[in-house]
Design brief:
2 domains; Rossmann fold; binds 1,4-dihydronicotinamide adenine dinucleotide; alpha/beta; single chain; 11 strands; six-stranded parallel beta sheet
Length: about 350
């Protein structure tokens, strides 16, 4: 690094982000300006003079934003998350480099998925409220054993495989689907239709792409077991929320455990407790006793926050020192599943 400090415009900054990023840079090697607002075409001008913009899952890095960043001389988009469906990666190719944090704590997300499942199955959310009110009745709290149930895991990457291990510990039967199955893994891969048909519980751990948007829809729900429990800690738009509401109303879906929601960017991470929420589908879901919703908090552990900050600074440092970074997100590599490019050189 030269004499000049690298300037980072940090968008969608929350208290816990500011604390973890300050802790990871005690010597203040970077000049970071924290903005509460998200990055969008209306706020992009705040990045004027910055070398890097640091963004999270709901910042909207569309074509207009990319054009403006390039024009202002910003060199790097540093995602402090794994998913990058909020960035127009194809458009950015050749214009501006993008880096991400591919894994910060896959344990955090997999453990949260199991926390949601246990809460739902053992009615902990109901019991908590009851005992707070000195209501010690057990009526309506009957759950079921997870032992012996079949869980279908969609996406057997880092998080999916940890969730698989956790489920194995509970004595569950495990089947899985992955677009790119791991060879010689011993995982019992099945086609999606079979997974829908056989699973008592289905958990999603794959990225959101154009092809799997709304992979849970009226047609696929029809193929599922009556009473199936859906867990989504991946990306909201994997599930067609209106079809989900309908499936629950029809009693086809037994419960939904959601850490993500397809229209979450308008509401998640904000306090709307004194407001009327305009999203009727979200309001309907929240009103249902068998829906548990957390607001994209699966990643939120102390370990994950520290890893996110360390990796983000390392990505920025690598890029500025070498002109490339092992954690680059590149449209070309993204398109070709078996791309062997390991980002040991510039993508463009
Ligand atoms: P990973 O890249 O290790 O694994 C993803 C797996 O999905 C890979 O095995 C890949 O082959 C598979 N896959 C790709 N396209 C697929 C498709 N169309 N259908 C089925 N499988 C497909 O990713 P990791 O770290 O396990 O993360 C999984 C997802 O979890 C991320 O994409 C992200 O959306 C979500 N996530 C959510 C967080 C939260 O706080 N709720 C935090 C971190 C990640």
């Amino acid at each position: 690094m030269g004499e000049e400090k690298i300037k980072v415009a940090f968008f969608d900054a929350k208290e816990y982000d500011i604390a973890s990023f300050k802790a990871a840079d005690p010597e203040e090697k970077y000049e970071v300006t924290f903005y509460e607002t998200r990055l969008s075409k209306d706020t992009v001008k705040l990045a004027e003079g910055a070398d890097v913009v640091c963004v999270f899952v709901n910042d909207d890095v569309n074509r207009k934003v990319i054009d403006k960043l390039v024009k202002m001389g910003v060199k790097l988009i540093a995602l402090r998350c794994a998913g990058y469906n909020n960035v127009d990666v194809e458009y950015a190719f050749g214009k501006i480099h993008i880096v991400r944090v591919p894994a910060y704590s896959p344990y955090a997300v997999a453990e949260h998925a199991m926390a949601l499942l246990l809460t739902s199955v053992r009615r902990i959310h109901k019991a908590y409220i009851r005992t707070k009110d000195f209501n010690f009745s057990l009526n309506g709290l009957t759950g079921f054993d997870l032992h012996g149930k079949t869980v279908g895991i969609v996406g057997t990457g880092k998080i999916g495989r940890i969730f698989m291990d956790i489920c194995r510990g509970f004595g569950m039967n495990i089947i899985a689907y992955d677009k790119f199955p791991m060879k010689d893994s011993g995982i019992d891969y099945v086609e999606l239709d079979e997974l829908w048909k056989r699973s008592d519980i289905i958990s999603f751990h794959c990225p959101l792409t154009d092809e799997n948007r709304h992979m849970v829809n009226a047609d696929t729900i029809a193929k599922m077991k009556k009473g199936v429990i859906l867990i989504n800690t991946s990306r909201g738009a994997l599930i067609d929320s209106e079809a989900l509401v309908e499936g629950i109303k029809q009693r086809k879906i037994g419960a939904a455990c959601l850490d993500v929601y397809e229209e979450e960017s308008d509401v998640f991470f904000h306090d709307y407790s004194n407001h009327i929420v305009n999203d009727d589908v979200l309001a309907r879901l929240i009103s249902m006793p068998n829906v548990i919703l957390t607001s994209h908090q699966a990643f939120l552990t102390a370990e994950a926050l520290a890893n996110i900050a360390d990796t983000t600074y390392k990505n920025i440092e690598d890029y500025h020192r070498d002109g490339f970074c092992g954690n680059e997100v590149c449209y070309k590599c993204n398109k070709v599943a078996d791309c062997k490019q390991e980002h040991k050189a510039k993508c463009f």
